[in-house]
Amino acid sequence: MKTAVLIGFMGAGKTTVGHELAELLGLPLIDTDKEIIRRTGQTPGEIFATAGEASFRELEYTVLRDVIHKGGVIATGGGIVETPGNIQLLSEAGVPVYYLSGSFGQTLERLADDDTRPILRTKTLLEVAALWRSRLPKYDAAATTTVQTDGKTPRDIARLIQIAF
Ligand code: S3P
């Protein structure tokens, strides 16, 4: 079964686009955050609060390693590129990695009033902007294709990826 991986910052639309893309390609959707919840019974927020971010990143790595060869559309968490092992898993698997890239402004709009993401809960706007800046080159390096998302619907984005797939 074929695999397509979606990466990008929180609020980039990875899960929503993932649903659309999985439908268009006739592949199952695997969401790494949901898989972590299924395995641990805890949300990312709860894991960050109790075990800490490092434990979450270990779980995230284990999940990616387990699912990367299964086939399907894999919607990752925004911090997947923070773990060098994940970048290595992606490049060794040789699967297409689509970076959903939007402007900081539009991403923030999508994240407005979000209180489920632990990283947003603990950071000021300036810190989120710094995180954004530090991650952009990592998404660029991990991606095989960059998809500009501003002004496009999730369906449009999924169609663009379907054409490139
Ligand atoms: C994170 C993004 C989240 C989730 C966790 C950490 C991050 O996923 O994995 O809260 O570090 O950017 P989304 O990108 O789906 O929000």
Automatic annotation (TrEMBL):
It is found in: Cytoplasm. Its cofactor is Mg(2+). It catalyses: shikimate + ATP = 3-phosphoshikimate + ADP + H(+). Its EC number is 2.7.1.71. It comes from the Bacteria. ATP binds at G11, A12, G13, K14, T15, T16, R117. Substrate binds at D33, R57, G78, R135. Transmembrane segments: none annotated. GO terms for molecular function: ATP binding; magnesium ion binding; shikimate kinase activity. Catalyzes the specific phosphorylation of the 3-hydroxyl group of shikimic acid using ATP as a cosubstrate. Monomer. Belongs to the shikimate kinase family. PANTHER family: SHIKIMATE KINASE, SHIKIMATE KINASE 1, CHLOROPLASTIC. This is Shikimate kinase. It comes from Weissella cibaria.
